Structures are given as structure tokens and as C-alpha cells.
Amino acid sequence: MSRATDNPNSERRDFLKAGAMAAGLTVGPGVLLYGVAYSRAPEEPASPDKRWGMLIDTTKCGDGCNECVTACNTENGLSGKTGPQDSQWIRKVHIRDLQTGFELNLPMLCQHCENPPCVDVCPTGASMKRADGIVLVDRHTCIGCRYCMMACPYKARSFVHEPLTDQNPEVPRGMGCVESCTFCVQRVDRDETPACVEACNAAGHKAMYFGDLKDPESEISQALKIARSTEIRADLGLNTGVRYQGI
């Protein structure tokens, strides 16, 4: 199947070389792009003893606040544009109950499903789920077919239509590839908080929690014990890593 670009392989090779120089690493055959760019060494695989997740309290998510969106764009080198051909890894969604008039706002991002449909339909294995639950796209093997975009019930994936400049070397992207929220995996692998959560806390909203769902003592696990949470489209049985309160 053809890709919507004239010479994607050349572009990727050039970017890989630049990323490897920035990271001080040599790119070898079969090395995942994430393994090159992110701090966790290839010999230190993601642990199945963890499952990273996020809890979003919509009652604290203010109308008109876009701190999480802005932080995501800055961290991951996104333009911030919201057109149909622009990448949005997290977006604010306004919901209104037509019967009661109840309204709320919530951030929508990749839900990092335990049973991700994007992975099921990918013909090359480019869409993948790490052992710790983070769903990613391998730019080496993505052929731009966009089956994963059609399969995602959350419309959380974007396709890169245009050449990219001024990229964050920790977050390699490429024209002709599909991409989505990674939970800021480059930060997680350094034991840091995703940029959206950090920005939400810094703004004083504290509407987002991130942590290990398998650790009963983690902040997110403790928060989930206190208040009822909801999966969006729980009927699909995907067991999402992102949960919401107040909806």
C-alpha cells in the first residue's frame, strides 16, 4: 500500500541519523525508534509489574482551560493547530446532556487500552502495547494505512501529512505516520510526570492523576478507591488506562 509522501524512507533515515547524533547513540538494524530516542536503555524493558494509568476529575477541569493541551503540544513538538490535517494528542471536549442541560469539559487522549483495537487491526505491528500498558506507534514499521485511526473509538490518533521541523529529539515523529498520546513516555521512563499532568497541577486545578494502577499505594490507586470512576465506552471491554470522575 502506498504512503502519502514522495520519499518517506529517505526522510526517516535522515531524521534517525540526526536523532542518534543528538542522543549520542548508534542506530542498528531493528532498533525501535523509541529505544533510540528515550532514556530507558533497550536492555531495560518496560516492566509488566506496572500498568501506567491516568485519572481525570472532570469537576475540576475548567471551561476554557487548555493548560494540558498547551503543555502536550510544547513537550511533544506539536504545532497546536486544530485543523483536520493537524496532530492533536490531547484535545478538550465539551459535553452537554440534552435532557438535563448538564455540561462538562474533559481532556480526550489515547486511552491506553488493555485490549487496544488499534493494535488488533495494524497489519505491520507498528501499533503496539508495552508491557507496562503504554500504547505506542513504531515509526519504523508504520506504513500510514490508517487502519488504527478508523479502529480507535476515541478518535485519538492523528496522521502526519506534512514535513516536520523543529522537532523535540526525544519525541521522533515522521511524515506519513500515525501518532497519538504516549503518556509522555520519554518522561515516564525518567520517572517524571506527563507534561499535561504537571501543567494541570502547576495551574492549581489538580484535575489529573498519573501513576501505577498495579500499585495499591500509588496516588492514583488511592484516588480510585475514594470516588467512583468511569471508562468512556466501557461497553467495548477495552479496560482503558484512562478513567474519568464526574461523568
Write up what this structure looks like.
The N and C termini lie far apart (41 Å). The relative contact order is 0.22. This protein has a 3-stranded mixed sheet. A hairpin with a 5-residue loop joins strand 4 and strand 5. The protein has 8 helices and 9 strands. The chain has 247 residues and is of the alpha+beta class. The protein has one domain: Alpha-Beta Plaits, CATH 3.30.70. Helix 3 (67-76) crosses helix 7 (195-202).
Q: Which CATH class applies here?
A: Alpha Beta
Q: Report how far the terminal alpha carbons are from each other.
A: 41 Å
- Spatial order of the strands forming the largest sheet: 8-1-9
Order of helical and strand elements: HHEHEEHEEHEEHHEHE
Mean pLDDT: 85
At CATH level 2, the architecture is 2-Layer Sandwich
State the major sheet. 3 strands, mixed
Low-confidence runs: 1-40
Anisotropy-based shape: globular
> What's the domain count?
1
Taken as a percent bin, the fraction of beta residues is 15-25%
Please report the number of helical segments. Answer: 8
Helix content: 10-25%
Rounded to the nearest angstrom, the radius of gyration is: 18 Å
CATH fold name, please?
Alpha-Beta Plaits
SS content category: alpha+beta
